[in-house]
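Lecture 7 notes: from sequence to structure.

We start with a single chain of 254 residues. Read the sequence below before looking at the structure.
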Amino acid sequence: MNSIVILGAGNVAFHLTRALIQNTCNVRQIFNRTLDRAKEIAEANRISYTDKISEIEKADLYIIACADSGIEEFSHYIPYDDVLVVHTSGSSPMSVLKGDYRKGVLYPLQTFSKERTLRYDNIPLFIEAENAEDLSKLSLLANRISNEVHELDFASRMQVQMTGVWANNFVNHLYYIAGEICKKNNVPFDVLLPLIQETSNKVLEMDPIDAQTGPAKRGDQVIINRHLEVLKDDSRLLQIYQILTNSIERLYEK
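Now the structure, written as tokens:
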């Protein structure tokens, strides 16, 4: 890929641009409908930027790095046929790209925030393309960024994307709930950090089924009932607690 244009200026676009440039890939331009956001990424990486469709440069590869809801719209902006266009979504098929160009996917399995510094070489990248030649090109590009590159079709990629929701989004929401309970009891969230860190460390070395602890795994109904009593006035938290407890109990009841 001799030249690359990024369409989008969110968290994924921010980090993907940085990862490509750090690995000496020729990112030539950032396009975004909000110019200030494109400017932020472009100036940090010393590349050009625009918010005008007519100014989108010719390149070998176009990477649409935006929310799923915007992929199709962005895909109409590319005025060239003899190019490869990919999106970065785990939950959208290649067919969402609406153009006569060649199509593919470059999906990074990671949570992205602009404020965070990441190691890009250990972020899993999942690739897909319409033909073997483009798949090979994407593989070469992806392997310049990451040591974890996998070919995956949409059906399997969607499953993998969902695992990220379970392992990241849902877990982070539970951190929020735990933090709110701490706050109501005048306890700083920081008291949970050693527990969170040890739990994270354990799953680096153990299978999650072996790392599980707590009253649901032990079948300690006395403690569970005490927790349910504490939560009885908050139907939402009560329901979440019961669902998760029942799931753990069923897994370990044998």
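The radius of gyration is 22 Å. Keep this in mind for problem set 3.
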